[in-house]
Amino acid sequence: MRRGWKMALSGGLRCCRRVLSWVPVLVIVLVVLWSYYAYVFELCLVTVLSPAEKVIYLIFYHAIFVFFTWTYWKSIFTLPQQPNQKFHLSYTDKERYENEERPEVQKQMLVDMAKKLPVYTRTGSGAVRFCDRCHLIKPDRCHHCSVCAMCVLKMDHHCPWVNNCIGFSNYKFFLQFLAYSVLYCLYIATTVFSYFIKYWRGELPGVRSKFHVLFLLFVACMFFVSLVILFGYHCWLVSRNKTTLEAFCTPVFMSGPEKNGFNLGFVKNIQQVFGDNKKFWLIPIGSSPGDGHSFPMRSMNESQNPLLANEEPWEENEDDSRDYPEGSSSLAVETET
Fold first, then answer.
1. How many other CB atoms are there within 10 angstroms of residue 19's CB atom?
2. Which of 50, 179, 262, 318 ranks highest by number of CB atoms within 10 Å?
3. Which residues lie across from 150 on neighbouring strands?
4. Domain extents in the chain
5. Residues assigned a catalytic role
């Protein structure tokens, strides 16, 4: 009976947590819907008198709004990509590993299993990176998210504002969302400012529209400042080919810690996120190269790392295992164990 109550309570808490995790997203959606009403109806249709100005404002606003909402949608609903089956321990290997009580033997077992996998990063102690929750050898740059309860390829962070884990499958969309968010706020602030001044000086009538226009400028400026800082930080990360987790905790390779281990040069670093075809850089469609399981490394020559020589997938190579602490940024929280 007591066990049944505990299971019911645990299930209820999980359900509450799942519902509450959507609250930040709901807040953002409500703010965006209000901003749409305030800009389109209260500013453009009520406050702006010039028909030409109305049309120009509305055309540019809706063009930015479409890309802003599209990238936000993709950031929320693009599922994090998990390691494929070859990185999971087989049933036999899992039993052998769990039944073995000697840590040094377990470590050697993981080394032997990882020899067939394209893994080069290690734990701080030099061991193969292994997730004891998902029972898999972690690919390079893969980490376990305690919020999503799974290992995520090229995990960057878990973001509560999109209620999703940002990683290989959706990092491009997240960056585009930040970029279009900054542009959205900047456009609203610059076009609203002159009418804000007129309302402030009492040159325009309309109490209701005045409130919406004044508050619209305040909200746009507030979000612009926080978003431009976050976007600038992620631009820096992309230019160095780092994730947020790698910026906090230097990745360890077989040769030791190397903070620039994945840095291929500015242009190639950008291509690692956005792809080679520049016409897809501004559009939220998947164009990141590779499958998220292995990445080019600057410290290896072509004979050691086939990814530097061509685009063929890995077939054979080395090892992996390491956990990072939680970290956070102004609008994104990294939760990985």
1. 9
2. 262
3. 145
4. 14-80+167-222, 85-161
5. 159
